[in-house]
Amino acid sequence: MAEPVTLAHALRHARQMGLERIDAHILLLHLLGRPHHDRAWLLAHDQDTLTAAQWAQYQALCAQRLDAVPVAYLTGCKEFFGLHLQVDARVLDPRPDTETLVEWALELLPAAAPCRVADLGTGSGAIALALQSQRPQAAVTAVDFSADALAVARANAQRLQLPVQCVQSSWLAGVPGVFDLIVSNPPYIREDDPHMPALRHEPRQALTSGRDGLDDIRTIAAQAPVHLAAGGWLLLEHGWDQAEAVQAILRGAGLQGVVSRQDLAGQWRCTGGQWRDAAACNPAMPTYSRTVK
Ligand code: GLN
Fold this sequence. Notes:
This protein is α/β, with parallel strands linked by helices. It folds into two domains: about 5-65, no CATH class; about 75-280, Rossmann fold, CATH 3.40.50.150. The chain contains ten helices and eleven strands. The strands form three sheets. A seven-stranded mixed β-sheet has the order 7-6-5-8-9-11-10, sandwiched between helices. A two-stranded antiparallel ribbon has the order 1-2. Strands 3-4 form a two-stranded antiparallel sheet. Helix 1 packs across helix 2, helix 2 packs antiparallel against helix 4 (about 50-65) and helix 6 runs parallel beside helix 7. It is elongated. The N and C termini lie far apart (about 65 Å). The relative contact order is 0.11. The structure holds glutamine (GLN). Glutamine binds next to loops.
């Protein structure tokens, strides 16, 4: 009979296989049914032992992680803006970078007055649900072309009891109504980007968008004006080197006050602009942004 495997041994093994320490910890906590943030518990229990079945499962999880499967797909969940989302290979793994977009959106949305928000390419529903959780009075529409993705978003909305409305559409094509804010984290990676193999487990249609990565952003910018209320904002996430191109696209679509914003890593990660016409603006929507580039 082999020696029982301690948690310390399992973690050492995972590190020797090449896993990041945080991934090794989260996968072990997940396997043991512990909260994923409870890394101190692992240290305090590092002489606990795994059953043979748990050890086999842990090695299998580590092998999948080394094959670039996102940790969120292995654990089935991801925390985003304080919400516990269920995620799987039907949707993009929500990134912390995208919280930048949520924070910007929240600065623009009124604290209590009614407002209409659309999240295009919602995937797991991360952005739409984060906004709805912070702005209970907002009417939030979550849009995705993928029925699979919408099923994930809908299940998250239901579980979190957030009244987001889910609509299947190619961007705004089949979405009725106008919005005070349209947000999107669309696919924006170039088809031939060398990072694509590392992202091979995530839905390709959520990641790449044509030769320069900007096809979907061009479509959204072209569709947005007729769906924006006077004074409404369009905010987009994009790649670290796309801010100037996206600014030009938004200006070309007639948006004003176009500015970009950096993420926590200092990358120009989001660009937005405001739609104005002769009609009176929604007084609840601010006409400024503190971010400049
Ligand atoms: N930021 C993601 C990445 O580079 C891509 C997300 C997207 O295409 N919207 O991995």
